[in-house]
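Researcher: I'd like a candidate sequence for this fold, 293 residues long. If you have to choose between options at a position, lean toward the conservative one.
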């Protein structure tokens, strides 16, 4: 049964699947009817999802907002794009319209609106999912978070800029949602490790090229940790601010269980653990202590 928003502006309840569409190999877009959440969520935030009335798996899983689903310009639901990799996502892939899911959100900080200048998005693997809404907002095509008690003045959708997406996967069959980005007018640079689509090589090569040629005002990045660490380094060398969205495993999503901690630099030069679900998942890349470093 649906619950009203909590004091923190979160919503918890049961929602039903409106539609499930296969986008690429093992990759699906799930459309959920949920107007309350759709009015509050902003790009880069996430929700936790569980199968309703089922304890296997017991814990919810974090999934990013792909985009809000609007009817007559009113947000009525959420689109989630996911790769079926494990227990929950493989079962989600079997869901038919009408199937119930338990959801809570919006969670995390999200990406802040970038200045109205070129924005570079760097995505690896399934890391493109937070960026459709980021791009739509940056291009001035939609306002997000309109139903928040205190909507952000920054999120006024009034300062459009250009957006370039560098998006790399292992192989062409895993590229998901490219049409959605194209429809917005995003400049798209693709790469695959095996050369089956786009540039034959790592997406970080495309990011290095774009940093040198288009001089973006900011880089937003999401993907496997070694890729994000490499993009952070490239952006730092180019003197361009970089934000990363960490994909640490999460059990509660609301700051209670500490399963999601990441090492974040502190003003005294040391580091401390921070909970990615509440302090993130978006962090300044220069503040993250990467495992490889
Ligand atoms: C903020 C945030 C946003 C995210 N957004 C998205 C998103 O938009 N789309 C998306 O697809 N993912 C996203 N993720 C990642 C997603 O939450 C995980 O992939 C999630 O754990 C999948 O749940 P699952 O139950 O299907 O897989 P799990 O069962 O939790 O498995 C997770 C991983 O472990 C591996 N694994 C599982 N079982 C085994 C086993 N027996 N042996 C070895 N390895 C195993 C799986 O291959 C998989 O890589 C996000 C994560 C975070 C933190
Ligand atoms: S997921 Fe529980 S504290 Fe972050």
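Model: Candidate sequence:
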């Amino acid at each position: 049964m649906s619950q009203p928003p909590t004091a923190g502006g979160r919503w918890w309840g049961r929602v039903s699947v409106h539609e499930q569409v296969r986008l690429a190999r093992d990759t699906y877009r799930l459309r959920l009817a949920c107007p309350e959440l759709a009015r509050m969520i902003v790009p880069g935030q996430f929700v936790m999802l569980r199968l309703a009335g089922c304890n296997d798996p017991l814990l919810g899983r974090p999934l990013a907002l792909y985009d809000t689903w609007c009817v007559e310009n009113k947000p009525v639901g959420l689109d989630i794009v996911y790769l079926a990799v494990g227990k929950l996502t493989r079962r989600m892939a079997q869901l038919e319209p009408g199937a119930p899911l338990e959801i809570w959100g919006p969670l995390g900080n999200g990406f802040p609106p970038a200045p109205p200048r070129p924005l570079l998005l760097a995505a690896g693997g399934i890391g493109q999912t937070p960026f459709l809404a980021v791009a739509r907002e940056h291009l001035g095509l939609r306002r997000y978070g309109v139903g928040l008690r205190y909507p952000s003045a920054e999120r006024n959708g009034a300062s459009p800029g250009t957006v370039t997406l560098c998006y790399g996967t292992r192989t062409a069959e895993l590229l998901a949602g490219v049409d959605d980005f194209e429809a917005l007018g995003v400049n798209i640079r693709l790469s695959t490790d095996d050369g089956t689509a786009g540039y034959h090589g790592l997406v970080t090569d495309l990011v290095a090229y774009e940093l040198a040629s288009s001089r973006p005002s900011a880089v937003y990045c999401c993907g496997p940790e070694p890729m994000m660490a490499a993009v952070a380094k490239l952006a730092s060398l180019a003197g361009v601010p970089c934000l990363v969205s960490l994909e640490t495993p999460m059990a509660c999503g609301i700051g209670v269980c500490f399963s999601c901690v990441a090492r974040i630099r502190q003003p005294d030069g040391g580091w401390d653990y921070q909970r990615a679900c509440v302090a993130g998942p978006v962090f300044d890349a220069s503040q993250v202590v990467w495992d490889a470093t």
